[in-house]
Records
---
Amino acid sequence: MMGDKDYNQTVNNALDALARETELQIKDPQDNKDVFLHEVCGCMRRSYYDRFDKIEIQKKSFGNLFGGLIRKLPYGAKIGEFSIEEIKLKGQADMIVDDIVMIFRTVPSAPETPAASDILYLNGCMWIFNKTEGVIVYLAHDNTHTPFSVMREKKIFEETIRRVRVYSNLISEKKVPILEPSSECASCQYYERCFMKKNEGKQFSLTEMFGVKKK
Ligand code: SF4
């Protein structure tokens, strides 16, 4: 804080506004026939909380906003749909160039292998946009970029479809998905809900209860 101005608050408000503009918006959280690909590629419990009882991420990083900003550009990809019976699975790649589906992820350092959730997401985009080749590009804090190319895989998409059906059913039954412990938990805003039990019992002392004074 400098003088009377709280610059932190101003910056947070600006980042919140950017996030609102760039995040994919779910029109009706109760609508279990409308499922976004990103909701089933990571922890579904987190996605469920995001739909019905959201806690905003306190510190929005550039990484959180990056994909959304690219998709807003004129050459960014549009939202696509894939029908699974009556369910509409919606997904958005970051870019589609020369028939190659591309997604970008910002990371502290270049990974040895792509994250499973990123593979699931990229593969899902390839099916949604009917493309056969995709690339995940990891952009590291030291300004290096590491691309991984992936070919479309039916078996992986069948697993995505299975997760879409499970998630859609849980929404219609108003059931919170089971825990999916992973490295994602460490930075998840719902960590306390998942792993910390509230101590409901109120502590009392026998001396207070029976009016016995300590000697
Ligand atoms: S803490 Fe882990 S299990 Fe719980 S919602 Fe977050 S990512 Fe999922």
---
Amino acid sequence: MSNNPTMKSVELTNIVKKFGSFTAVDDVSINIKAGEFCTLLGPSGSGKTTLLKIIAGYETPTDGSVKIDNRDVSHVSVEIRNIGMVFQNYALFPHMTIAKNVAFPLEMRKIPKKEIKERVQETLDIVGLSELGERYPRELSGGQQQRVAVARALVFEPDILLMDEPLGALDKNLRQSMQFELKKLHRRIGVTIVYVTHDQEEALYLSDQIVVFNEGSIAQKDAPEKLYNAPNSAFVADFLGECNIFPAKIDGNKALLDNGMALKIYGKNNFLQKIGIRPERLIIGAAAKNCENSFEATIDEVFFLGQGFKYILNANGQIWTAVSQNNLNTEEYKKGEIVSVGFDANDIISLTK
Ligand SMILES: Nc1ncnc2c1ncn2[C@@H]1O[C@H](COP(=O)(O)OP(=O)(O)OP(=O)(O)O)[C@@H](O)[C@H]1O
Ligand SMILES: [Mg+2]
């Protein structure tokens, strides 16, 4: 990908955006490499769309700078930034055919008619809609309209593609197939993508880098695996997947929980305030007794998830969540049963806040 000359890096430095006295984006710095797929993930109202608009040039930052390909564009207009954007509500022009919708950015750029026709056809091919160019948006399904919006953002060969919850309105199957298509597309054209989603699985699947937002600030940013395996705060651990989180007092190689349980923990520092253990790290049944940490718990609830089971466990008043794979040879435990639960010291995530 790195040999694609149109790929551009994005460097955000100490970006602040205030609306009146309200700070929507609070001192945000992110480096996005050329060709990277970077996802902004965070709860509603955490400043994701505002930051995308700042990159695109639809909003001016109150403070901080935006650099594209090492050039400060903080004061460069939207048109000149050469950025494609798929908005949260991917509004197509209802009175224009699909082909016209996709042609629109090229017409704005005064590209010759013949070239427009070719590029529209090529782009509709890329998103799998080459047969539907003469239809109107209302004659398309939600997923097809979404792909038209992507085509319209790609057709002028942007240096950077910004996508704000582009798959938000789709059902699970269509969403997954679009995620797959998007990933293929990204590999094929190698454009730098800044993507916004609420959906943590989508973020893990698509991204090179995930930036987790909380109330306008960055909670943590890293590669998906690192972020999932080593979240630094309860907020990130919980936002990116499920996590058993308990306040803990650290005493040497022991973590003491509120219910009196003492867990073995390796070389962790005394600054820890909480510990986290992912539900899928918990082992239930006889094998749990061989783990470095094990205890008995009562099964409060069992949920069938299709691909596995989720158990809500009560260990001396402390509630734990465990998930197991739906292997035909795993035992299924019943509500009310008392089981052994275990995990190794290495499965403990240290959380500093
Ligand atoms: N033009 C504006 N004037 C005043 N406040 C605004 C404006 N635009 C956004 N905000 C506020 O800034 C905060 C961040 O908004 P933003 O749209 O960036 O959130 P978001 O993370 O994209 O949320 P969502 O996931 O719901 O789309 C919100 O509290 C919002 O109300
Ligand atoms: Mg938004």
